[in-house]
Amino acid sequence: MRAVICGTGSAVPDKVLDNEELSQMVDTNDEWIRERTGIARRHIAKKDTCVSLAVKAAKSALEQAAIPAEDIDLLIVSTISSNVVLPCTACEVQKEIGAVHAASYDLNAACTGFVLAYQSAQSFLQAGFYRTVLIIGSECLSNLVNWQDRGTCILFGDGAGAAVLRAESGNGYLPAAHSDGKKGVALKCKSFFDGDMENQRFRQEEYKMQMDGQEVFKFAVRQVPAVIMEVLEKNTLALDDIDWMILHQANSRIVEAVSRHLKVPLAKFPMNMQEYGNTSSASIPILLDEMNRDGRLKKGQKIILAGFGAGLTWGASILEW
């Protein structure tokens, strides 16, 4: 058996924060941000939440797939920024969409989360444990951003993307995934629940995302090409066999560096971070949904999904459209 995507969906908040507006909040400007990141604007949740965005993306994916929510056997939500802890985000989505037969749980792997959710769904489907799986990446990173730190607040946005997977006859592709906890300090976010109950002092800046941008950049441009080559070798495929390389949308310079390293035309690396910024685990499914709905994805095309981020974690999967 193999896992086949039969529907995609996405959702972003109505509020758009462009670089000009952001420059009124911190010492930056549109040219500086675009040159270093490729980002022009990002969507920020005001009324929406991580759960509500996930629900919208899920309903859109199910509608396109023409599959009722009752047919879902498993529901996985990848998120690091949910508005709920208990019940988990996936159970809240299950309730809202009526996926009454779905086992539901959250997955936390930051910007690699959707790729790992896809790999988990793929494994369950190929093993015959389930027939229909809904996977979602949903983030409200604006809640974790320090809006006084121009090194991070320019990067992140909110949104959600979803995909419906079904088991079909045929052979699937082997995945690749890695973690390096020793280098996790490069991108971190402290929990309010840090165990110091007697001396707990909630200084807001201590509980926001902190990132060593240079270290994350070096990690990404080194490990992403390597994991792409690894997943190709595992499946006896070559770079020329791949039609699209859909990478986590963190920074245009990272995508461009991966393209140069692999000697693959940049045209095979679609980008949309200029509109959404870095939406962590939502970035790949949002882009996948855009490409699906505008007709860029054609039946039979081979696609690599590659994620990289906090943990540190990174991974890649091959799918056939």
From TrEMBL:
Which reaction is catalysed here? malonyl-[ACP] + acetyl-CoA + H(+) = 3-oxobutanoyl-[ACP] + CO2 + CoA
Is the keyword Lipid biosynthesis assigned to this protein?
A: yes
The UniProt keyword set, sorted, is: Acyltransferase, Cytoplasm, Fatty acid biosynthesis, Fatty acid metabolism, Lipid biosynthesis, Lipid metabolism, Multifunctional enzyme, Transferase
| Domain (Beta-ketoacyl-[acyl-carrier-protein] synthase III N-terminal): residue spans on this chain | 105-174
The entry's localization annotation reads:
Cytoplasm
State the superkingdom. Bacteria
Query: Mostly located where?
Result: cytoplasm
Q: In which pathway does it act?
A: Lipid metabolism; fatty acid biosynthesis
The Beta-ketoacyl-[acyl-carrier-protein] synthase III C-terminal domain sits at 232-321
Q: Where is this region: ACP-binding?
A: 249-253
SUPFAM superfamilies for the chain: Thiolase-like (SSF53901)
Q: Name one Pfam family in it.
A: ACP_syn_III_C
Q: Where is the active site?
A: C111, H248, N278
Q: How does it assemble?
A: Homodimer.
Family named by the database record: Belongs to the thiolase-like superfamily. FabH family.
Q: What is known of its domains?
A: The last Arg residue of the ACP-binding site is essential for the weak association between ACP/AcpP and FabH.
Protein name (Swiss-Prot/TrEMBL) = Beta-ketoacyl-[acyl-carrier-protein] synthase III
